[in-house]
Design goal:
Layout: H1 2-31, H2 77-90, H3 93-112, H4 123-134, H5 141-149, H6 156-170, E1 177-188, H7 197-207, E2 210-214, H8 220-232, E3 248-261, E4 272-277, E5 283-289, E6 299-304, E7 313-319, E8 326-332, H9 340-350, H10 353-356, E9 360-363, E10 368-369, E11 371-378, H11 380-385, E12 407-420, E13 424-437, E14 450-456, E15 461-468
Helix pairs in contact: 2-6, 3-4, 3-9, 4-5
């Protein structure tokens, strides 16, 4: 009897505990209570939870966003920064060095031919456009293009993935600036059906390229291409081509737009006019930006050798937004008599990093003029001088389209714009790679020296055989 009573008591206790747990669960569901250990909880119960930025209004704090102090919601700037920074960690130094080295080589060569002129290129825009078209390279041209672009033995799958990460690391990296990168491919309607699917798939997947098919014989085609360029650069570059080239069957275009506010803006009322020594030794004028007299002067990462040093120079870093992007100024010292083009050569030889690695943060006088200009140039001769020759020969890009076509690069055109003022910087760049095709549909085109034969087809006896090199010569 005692055993029965004990068993009943145990069963009663189990029943009581079960009912109690069910009641608690039901209560939680009804009241909407959540697990206090859930990462979505933004309460101050856990002082170690890194959900609250230290200074919500600090532009240098990557978690800073006064409209979203928790930084936990999808689409918040903290979330965007996290994604952008994660992509930045995936970008290899090899691909960055390749882009930067190519840019410095092109910049140095162009600068030497532009004595006394303002000029600017966008290494990133050039590299993206050339990376896209290099996916169409064929034969010996593959190795040559990779060598000149700095890709070496990298596989295209790796190169393309790196550019995808690089672009994603740049856009939406700072709420205080705009950086937009867009790619497009324009094809002649008679050429488009023969373009290989593998080529278009790669550009869509890794470069987010938009594809357009137009009648290149129609003058409106150029207008449509230029309209796209103007839209993507916010009107700063209104056209990239005057008219479609006679051999053109495809254009691969990269457009880049940048607008950023200084982390610490200059004071417009403090801008003053001063002397500016020109390359020819004469004196010009410039409007120099400055901070307000009662404003605390910001500290800058900077370096300066002795101004009497014949090899000396000065470097300053002026940050934008949350201090991820920055403007760098590099100027020869007064004692350095090297002209600016030779100085650029030295930077290219020594590597840009060797100038930036010396910077230390300190209060540093800055005399920076406002400026605004545009620049444009065909890059064909520059690339040829760097060793890229096969790309401009018929059939260099057979991985874009096969026979009867023989596509090749017929032009590489680059345009840039920049304005630097008290508020910040606005810049744009467009790189257009024109793909030409000399191939024609099957047929006899006697538009070059040719051989002719006259024979008796019954006996197959050749009566005459000759060549024509100049039809008008008698």
């Amino acid at each position: 009897m005692k055993k029965i009573m004990m068993i009943l008591a145990v069963l009663a206790m189990i029943f009581f505990v079960s009912c109690s747990n069910s009641s608690e669960k039901k209560e939680n569901v009804d009241t909407g209570d959540t697990d206090p250990t859930d990462t979505g909880d933004t309460s101050d119960d856990d002082p170690t939870e890194p959900t609250e930025p230290t200074n919500p209004t600090d532009p240098t704090d990557p978690t800073s966003d006064p409209t979203d102090p928790t930084g936990q919601e999808e689409g918040s700037w903290e979330a965007k920064y996290k994604k952008a920074d994660d992509h930045a960690e995936q970008v290899s130094k090899d691909i960055v060095n390749a882009n930067n080295d190519l840019g410095m080589k092109i910049f140095s060569k162009l600068a030497a031919g532009e004595a006394g002129k303002n000029m600017m290129i966008s290494p990133l825009s050039i590299s993206i456009a050339m990376a896209m078209v290099s996916n169409g390279a064929s034969g010996d041209n593959i190795a040559e293009m990779k060598e000149v672009l700095g890709f070496g033995d990298m596989e295209f799958e790796y190169i393309n993935a790196q550019f995808e990460d690089l672009v994603k690391s740049l856009v939406e990296a700072d709420k205080d600036l705009v950086l937009e990168i867009a790619n497009s491919v324009w094809m002649d309607d008679e050429f488009a059906p023969d373009v290989k699917q593998d080529f278009t798939d790669v550009l869509k997947e890794f470069y987010d390229a938009a594809f357009f098919t137009e009648d290149f014989q129609d003058e409106a085609a150029a207008d449509k291409i230029n309209s796209w360029v103007s839209e993507k650069t916010h009107g700063k570059i209104d056209k990239i081509i005057e008219k479609v080239g006679p051999q053109a069957v495809m254009y691969l275009i990269n457009a880049l737009y940048f607008k950023a506010a200084w982390t610490t803006s200059f004071d417009k009322e403090s801008t003053y006019e001063g002397a500016f020594m020109l390359s020819d030794g004469t004196q010009g004028k410039a409007d120099y930006m400055d901070f307000a007299y009662d404003q605390e002067k910001p500290e800058f990462y900077s370096y300066s050798s002795d101004w009497s040093d014949e090899n000396g120079y000065s470097v300053v870093r002026i940050p934008y937004g949350r201090d991820v992007f920055a403007f760098y100024g590099i100027v020869p010292s007064y004692g350095n008599k090297t002209n600016i083009d030779k100085f650029i050569e030295e930077i290219a030889e020594n590597g840009l990093d060797s100038y930036i690695s010396q910077l230390e943060k300190r209060t540093f006088p800055v005399r920076l003029p406002k400026y605004k200009f545009a620049y444009e140039k065909s890059l064909v001769e520059v690339f040829q001088s760097l060793g890229m020759e096969k790309a401009f020969v018929d059939g260099a890009l057979m991985n874009i389209a096969g026979e009867p076509h023989a596509p090749f690069i017929s032009d590489i055109y680059h345009k840039t714009f920049i304005e630097v003022n008290e508020e910040g910087t606005e810049a744009a760049a467009v790189t257009s790679v024109e793909v030409g095709d000399n191939a024609m549909p099957a047929g006899f085109y006697a538009d070059r020296p040719f051989v002719f034969v006259i024979r008796d087809d019954r006996t197959k006896s050749v009566l005459f055989i000759g060549k024509v090199e100049n039809p008008k010569a008698e």
